[in-house]
Structure formats: C-alpha cells, structure tokens
Amino acid sequence: MAIKVEMPKLSDTMEEGVIAKWNVVEGDKVESGDVIAEVETDKATMEVEVFDSGTILKILASEGDAVPLGKIMAIIGEEGEDISDLVEEAQSGNGAKEETADSEKEKQKANKSEEKEPIDPVFGELEQNGSEQGTKQKSASVTDDGRIKASPLARKMAEEKGIELSSVQGSGPEGRIIKRDIEEYTPSRQPAAPAAMPSASKEDKEHRVSQMRKAIARRLAESKYSSPHYYETIDIDMQHVFAARKKLNEASDVKISFNDIVVKACAMALRRHPAINSSWKEDTILEHGDVNVAFAVAIEEGLVTPVIPQTDQKGLAQISAESKELAELARDRKLQPEQMEGSTFTISNLGMFGIEEFTAIINPPNACILAVGAIRDVPVVENGEVVPGKRMKATLSSDHRIVDGATAAQFLSTVRNLLENPLGMLL
Q: CB within 8 A of 269, min separation 6: which ones?
C-alpha cells in the first residue's frame, strides 16, 4: 500500500518548509529511518526521515519549493503500484498543476491559435528572424505582472551562473523555468550591440525570502510594535577585563573571548535583578527561575540566537566552550530548535565589526536585550592626568511593560561593576 510522506512539523513555529535538497530520486529504495530530504524551516535546515520501507514512487516538490505543513512531499510504495489517486490528492492539496503530455499539447495548440507570441518583459515584442522564416525566438514564460516564471532554485542557479532568465526556455508546467533548464542551458549567439548605445541600466534582482528571514521579520515586527521599547546606554571601563583575560588565556588551553566575559557578567547581574529576567504574559509577569542567556550569531540568511542554559551557574571556560560550539553549529545551519528556545535574556555584540554603539530590538519573549559595541582606545582622565584607556558602550533595550527605567539602570550598573572588577566574577 502506497504511503504519503508529508511535510513534518520540524519547529514549534513552522508553517511551511522549503525543500533544500533531495537525497533520493524516483525509483530509489529506502528503509525506515533513511534521510530522504533536507528542509529549510524558519529556524534551521532539518533532515526528514521516512518511517516506512519501500520505493520512492513519486516526488511532488522540487528543490527550492515551499511545501505547507502536512502537505505531501513524496509517495512511497511498491514498484508498479497505482498511485494516481494519491498524486491527484497531492496536486489538489499542494496547489500543483502538473498536466499530462496530451493535455499540454492541446493547451499549446489553443495558445497558438488564440494568442499572440509572448512579449519579453524588458524588450517588448521579440524580433523576428524574417517574414520568410515565419518563426520567433522562444522566451521564458511570464506572469500577468511581467515576472518570469521560474522556481526559486532555478533563479538562484541562474544568478550564480550569470544567466539571464529571459533567455532560458522553461520546460516546467506552463513554461516555468526549473533546475534542469538552467543546468542544460547553452547561450545562443547574441547580435552585436549598436555602436551608439547609452549606458544600460543594471538588471533588478529578486531574492527568495528564506523561512528564517520570514520568521525574523514576523517576530521582530511584532516585538517592535507591540513592546514599548526604550533605551539606556552605559560606558564601561574595560582596562581590567583586558588584563584579566590575558592572564586567563595564558593559564589555560581554553581561550576566553571578551563576549564570553560579557555573557558571564550579564548572567550574574540577571540573578541579582530578576525583573530583567522576566516575560510579559498579559495578566501576569513571569519571573524565570533559570537564567538562560542567548547570543546573536550572524549567518547568511539573517540572525539566529543560540541559548546557553543556566548561564549563571557556569564558569567562563564552560561558557566559552558552549558558545563556540553553538556558534559553529549556527553557521553550519545545524542548530536544533531546542538549542534556540528558552532564552530569558539576549546579547547582540557587533564590536567585532567596529560598531561603537547601536540599539537592538528585543527578542521575544525576553524583557530586554543588550547591544554591545566595540572596545575603543580613548584618552581618559585619571587622578587629574590624561592617560590611555579602553572603553566599551553597551545599550539596553527594555520592554517598559515589564522593566522601569530605574530597574534597567540598576542592572546596567551591576554589569558595569562586574566588568570593571572582573575578579569578582571568579568568586
């Protein structure tokens, strides 16, 4: 009996998944537990396993296609098994419109008799080779609004290879350009440009919005416009942190970063100021028992925020080891959803990019986020004399429904005291 492979729920906020890669083709035999595909969710790229053995009879989504939660991705069964009913169900449910060869031919005949040749969205009606030939150059199929029909994967491949989509003939449904068309594309000889042509405009490019970017846009828009943000900035003397970090790294194989020390200071300050370690629940404010600090990691698709659980109970060496491992997993898109959940506070550090000061949007359901800038070499006054100093600005964004200004200021003061006296964090 044929079995449907449906898009699984791979994260708590997932609504659809994009097929990043198929590990099988139609006709392959699979066993229970085999990974047949990699799917891009709003949080990470996850593996999809099958729970039954059989043959891949039909793959119903191409690489780059978005498949809604619970919709059919593929069909498994015995070779030669009739799956027409399941294919029809999948096409209806997934919104696919794959036509048979006969119906496609009839449609092409109707189009030829009732419609004019397609018009190129940039250059207008395509130039004929001559009335004696009576033929026109083929072009990609376009939508009503002038966009060329192409799968997201085909668009990406064309961009990487420098191929103009308007010059590619699509072989997919309704002339849609698919992966195979880009792989097999051979550029035709182009006529020489006129001698006196004005400089040409650069072509606009559209990039598919990844599931992660959609989630970032949705969550941060909700945070910015539903949480009343306000900001407080503090300037911290980092001279003693420099000296302490140097001694720690000389005495141990574990290399401590400045961000590790900031994470530790914030974790200790959160334990002393539980109002900062809270979340808004409409009728109540939830004061979290654990201190779970998240830190922002930049990847190609945007930002992810892996979490160090029970951060306040860990030493600098453990915080350093965990943060390095989580950051590496994040950059490889291998973070699991549970490694990005449960944060009670977030740190965003742009100091490595030379950013001196910025404000960050609160990562819900946190009450606050700390934006950390670069450590600056500046002149400072000590005992009436100007001497070299090292300073770092940090800006706390707070949700005014939970945290008042004085409470935020007290938290920042504690963070500053810990960083300006780092030996206290070792006690």
A: 276, 411, 414, 415, 418
